[in-house]
Q: What sequence folds into this?
């Protein structure tokens, strides 16, 4: 699987770069290990996208992958309590509806 080889290459290259530039203190920093779960989640999402491209074709897979904007926007409003004016909420709602409508129209036709 090319995805695993690519990931392994990035990991080895980053390790060599850090050792060559004598930045080994990065291996001892807490923040270096706190971002690992985010990287794993990203890897799962990227793998799901690759599988979707094989199953659905690149046109449909790409359009569906762009719907993450809708989830991110709603997550920001609901969970992070993003503050907006009434006008801002209206524009955001219209934008989200247009994104979903565009995805539906693109995937159907």
A:
């Amino acid at each position: 699987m090319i995805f695993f080889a690519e990931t392994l290459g990035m990991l080895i290259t980053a390790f060599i770069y850090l050792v060559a530039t004598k930045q080994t203190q990065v291996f001892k920093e807490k923040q270096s290990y706190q971002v690992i779960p985010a990287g794993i989640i990203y890897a799962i999402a990227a793998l799901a996208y690759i599988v979707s491209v094989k199953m659905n074709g690149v046109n449909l897979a790409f359009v569906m992958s762009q719907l993450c904007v809708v989830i991110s926007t709603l997550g920001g409003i609901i969970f992070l309590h993003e503050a907006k004016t009434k006008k801002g909420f209206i524009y955001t709602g219209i934008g989200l509806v247009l994104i979903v409508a565009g995805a539906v129209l693109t995937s159907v036709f």
Q: What stands out?
A: Residues 66-109 form one domain.
